[in-house]
Amino acid sequence: MKKIKTLLLACVLLLSVTSCFEDFDDNFIVASTSEINDFVWKGMNVNYLYKSEIPNLANDRFTSNEEYTEYLNDFDAPEDLFESLKYLPESVDLFSRIYSNYFDLLNAQQGTSLSNGIEFNLYFVPGSETEVFGAITLVLNNSVADNLGLERGQIFRAVNNEELTTDNITDLLTTDSYTLNFADYNNNGTSEPEDDTITLNGESAELTKVTYTENPVHKVEVINLTPSIKIGYLMYNRFNSSFNSELNAAFGEFNAAGISDLVIDLRYNGGGSIQTAAYLGSMITGQFTGEVYSKTFYNEDLQNLNTDYLFTNTIEGGGAINSLNLSKVYVLTTNRRTASASELLINSLKPYIEVIVVGENTVGKTQASLTRYDSPNFAFENVNPSHTYALQPLVANSTNVNDQLVPNSGLIPDIQITESPSTFGTLGDLNEPLLATAIVDILSADRPLNRFNQNFTLFKINKTQPLEQDMYID
User: Fold this and answer.
1) Residues of the chain with pLDDT > 90: what percent?
2) Helix/strand/coil (H, E, C) string of 260-276?
């Protein structure tokens, strides 16, 4: 099997977009760094999941106001204080974040960002440790890239006519406008990657990022294999509560078609709302209404907030849920992209129905976050108007009904298969490798475990983007 070194998974960046929310009046008093630091410490002291592991967050840490003020003044920026309060940031808390402008966070949680509409993977050129090529993994519906006719699987070797390397990819691919120079991938008729070539073909596309709101219900298909086997396919890219109705409508289509099997494609879904994940679990099933779907556990001072999320037959403010009453579901996953609420869905359904995971090992993130503002109760109401800082700390851990966490190492697929840059295929098509593998299993009594494993090696050289692997409490 081919072994192609993957350089990184680079997605559409969630950049600052403040225009979608009303800005503050220009005439307000700007808070000092010390005042913002006070909010940061108090927000973490009250809410942080790992409070007991951080001595500086102890309730009795300071013996006087003077000592506390001196401590706050030791930090030149709120970001510095926040980072100092995270528990094992290289191995445990990889996800708590601070925002200097919470309008950016609000936009991102509603699916709005600056985007040109493509997501892509970057790989090392075969035989090189410095030369890079890219492959488009996803073209968002009704986006700039979609309107230009770009397609999943297109290969690009250069940007702005400059060939990609490990030294220039960040500069070239993080600007608001750039031109992709496309290439052809040729395996030269062999199964070994050493003689593969990637050659510029003269085609290009100029992309400019614009304000864009993504409907995470990316694709809904009904695949009629036989009169008795009808497969519902849903490509779902984020658990965004703003689109619960669209998600429910997709299951209405599946109900109307009378599907016998279901494939949920979460390969690029990094998480989102826990409640939306509970709604999706209820749509897949329907026979467990009122039973515990998942549980969240807070720090020792907030045990009264521990919550059981239940299977339900209604969406709050959205009417009845379209449930399929299935006893088995297939979920498609990829490494470092399937995380948080996606893993929650798999873990929470497993005690109740058969969940067959096809793809790659998931991220392994069990914690949930909650946006905390500078207000008396850390909610958005009565927020301090003198600054726009907000915290998105980890506040709770999530388990299934049997108190089982998603392992830190992630969920291991039942059927292992890795996406290849030369054979991505069309999402929802019978011949797309991950979906085809699920269909083979649906049609076969003998599950082909690891039959399609391609053993890719993943190299990740940059941090995940905000919300890319987030799971939050509404």
Assistant:
1) 81
2) CEEEEECCCCCCEEHHH
Q: What is the pTM of this model?
A: 0.87
**164 & 310 share domain:** no
Name the more confident of 6 and 411: 411
First to last CA, the chain: 44
Q: Are residues 328 and 277 part of one domain?
A: yes
Question: How far apart are the C-alpha atoms of 425 and 430, rounded to whole Å?
Answer: 9
Strands in 372-373's sheet, in edge-to-edge order, are 97-99, 390-392, 372-373
- Tens-place pLDDT, residues 354-411: 999 999 999 999 899 999 999 999 999 999 999 999 999 999 999 999 999 999 899 9
Q: Are residues 419 and 316 located together in one domain of the fold?
A: yes
Cβ–Cβ < 8 Å for 311, 283: no
271: left (phi over 0), alpha (psi -120 to 50) or beta: left
Q: Which of 247, 197, 192, 198 is nearest to 218 (CA)?
A: 247
Residue tagged 């998942």 (tokens)? 294
CA distances from 69 to 78, 83, 363, 435 (A): 14, 18, 39, 58
Domain boundaries, position 140: 117-208
